[in-house]
Amino acid sequence: MQNIIFDLDGTISNSAEGVRQSLNFALTEMGAEPVAETDINRYIGPPLQETFAQLLKTDAQEVIDEAVAKFRQDHTNSGHKLSRMYTGIEKALNELKREGHKLFLATTKSQALAESVIEHFGIGHLFDGIYAGGGTMDKTELLRKILDEHSLNANACIMVGDRDFDIKGAKETGMRSVGVLWGYGTRGEIADADFLAATPDVILKNIKEYRK
Question: What is the pLDDT of residues 57-66, one digit of tens each?
């Protein structure tokens, strides 16, 4: 398995505090009720358009787009700076890179926000490509884009993520998957992953199993 594709929020980045700040900034600006801290996890990962359509109870695209723009404004200014890397993930990324794997990032964030977070963490040099949906591409489409642009064989790729659409994207593109248990998804929603990882070091063990 030469190519490892990582999700961002809930896999590399513990972004709950920053997402809650930016989400509630946008909701308040739109005259809506803020999201409680205990409910934030369900809104981390899915495309922002889906999240705001649900929270604002609307399918009016102009309203959704306005809310997304306000979220991105706050997240670019300060929200992303509240993100922290999960313990052990930087070590795992560095070890995978040293072993010769190509590393990619696939996130539904906008390209600018994804790059801001990676720059904030100082790990941009570890990735061979950063791919962001920005509300126009879901995880499956992002994975197909990575495969196409880098002429990769899906059988030589692993998707690492914490939500059901990460695992679904891997299956729909013919990749194997590792579901991480420290993120925002439940064990149940990632149960179809080929492997589950309770800590980042287990990702390394899983990938070594794939090599056999």
Answer: 999 999 999 9
pTM of the model: 0.86
Residue 7 among the catalytic residues: yes
Separation in Å, CA 122 to CA 117, 126, 129? 9, 9, 15
- Give the active site residue among 7, 9, 162, 164: 7
**HEC profile of 132-198:** ECCCCCCHHHHHHHHHHHCCCCHHHEEEEECCHHHHHHHHHHCCEEEEECCCCCCCCCCCCCCEEEC
